[in-house]
Amino acid sequence: MAKKIRLVATDMDGTFLNEAGAFNHKRLARLLKQFEDNNIILAAASGRALLALDKLFAGFTDKIAIIAENGAFIQYKGETLFEQHMPKEQYLQLIDKILENPYNRGKELLLSGKKAAYILKDSPQSYIDHMRLYYENVQVVEDFENLEDTIFKITTNFAPQDVRNGENWLNEQLPHMQAVTTGFASIDVIQRGSNKGFGLDHLCQKLVIPSHQTLAFGDNLNDWEMLRFAGHAVAPENARSEIQKIADEVIGHHNEESVMSYMEGLVNG
């Protein structure tokens, strides 16, 4: 690659992480030292909450940037650079609209906050157990009316065949919000304009890095804006077809640590 890369942003699930949601810590430690020597910054960009990403990258958070909640929260070396939350009145109205969705399959929704994540008590136990794989400090509550927390987003599940229809319905009903597919059965509802591309743009402005000196990895539709913003876009072979079409390169499967290998190539020739 001829142009100098100064910032590398990577999605987590289905991209940087393997199917077990893990990565090689020793390999990353070596890579971050090489990135530092070459004045390159690594940004972890995810729909996951900051609590989950801080735990995932324990021991590394003082060396990297984090774009959490699909762009609603940005942190660099442990310092908060930006956050955008939902007022209570807004997220309560959103919940009602999500439950009205004709493609909705029940109370499979979660509110992601700064202190915890919240799921209704009458949600299916299978859903509660599944979301605990991706969110830290999941609290099961009677209702959402009395939460004492800052809420960044709402996430909800659909049957895989209904995800795109459910997403489109929500976007038609909620012009001030944005519903984005984050997985093959999951949708995040966030403030319109708040996405990973916005987060990466904001981070670049803070660090005075032009977009053409950024590189981004992603596999799903909530990575679209980030890949469009970056000077160079890379997708793993397991990425959605829509993402592969806009990528400059398609590399190996995420279970092969292809993203880590590509990043190592940036500093090792």
From TrEMBL:
Return the InterPro entries for the record: Cof (IPR000150), HAD-like_sf (IPR036412), HAD-SF_hydro_IIB (IPR006379), HAD_sf (IPR023214)
GO CC field: cytosol
Query: One of this protein's Pfam families, by short name?
Result: Hydrolase_3
Q: Which Gene3D superfamilies match?
A: 3.30.1240.10, HAD superfamily/HAD-like (3.40.50.1000)
NCBIfam families found in the cross-reference section: Cof-subfamily, HAD-SF-IIB
Q: Which PANTHER family match?
A: 5-AMINO-6-(5-PHOSPHO-D-RIBITYLAMINO)URACIL PHOSPHATASE YBJI-RELATED, PHOSPHOSERINE PHOSPHATASE
Tell me the superkingdom of the source: Bacteria
Q: Name one GO molecular function term.
A: phosphatase activity
Q: This protein is called what? A: Cof-like hydrolase
